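Q: Could you predict the 3D structure of RNA pseudouridylate synthase?
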Amino acid sequence: MPTQEDDSRDPDLLSVLKADLKHRHHKPGNVYLGLVHRLDRPVGGVMVFAKTSKAASRLSDAVRTRRLDKTYVAVVHGKPPQPSATLRHWLRKDTRTNTVSVVKQGQPDAKEAVLDYRLLGSQDGLSLIHIKLHTGRPHQIRVQLAATGCPLFGDQRYGSAVNKPGQQLALWSTELAFEHPTLKEELRFRSQPPEQHPWYIFAKELY
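A: Sure. Here are the predicted structure tokens for RNA pseudouridylate synthase:
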């Protein structure tokens, strides 16, 4: 399901949640719901939306200033060159093809992408990776890990040489932490990947 409406016209999360709020709270007219961040369509996991414009503004500022902590897990092909490291690349998006590539610093429209990863386990030619995201660039995790020689399981776009059509992308947003926009207390939400292939290969590490 896309985060918001796109050219496919498939049901999107933002519209579904607005309809749910309208029904659940018996609200007349339009319902406000602020989109704070996105997940790529094939990616699952936890997200946050804002029910007021004030909350949306403050949460968006937390995203911009890197005070909204995002944690992911991914299953990748191969094994990273180091058990843990910080990946730093410059990425450029081609809006015509909706693809992202690694480029040299200073190229037009290039944006810095930073993440930390940690190897959790390896088995059957696959590895489970814990990822702490510091920037929120389009397709960032998929592109950066592919650039290290470890494309994500199921990623047809950035790992077509090792993935088969129909496989589901193995990337999951497992934890989101931020300060409540008005109460100023820390909130932390978690979501686990489904117990299916390839996640269940790493059941000991995940569940």
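Q: Anything worth pointing out?
A: The radius of gyration is 18 Å.
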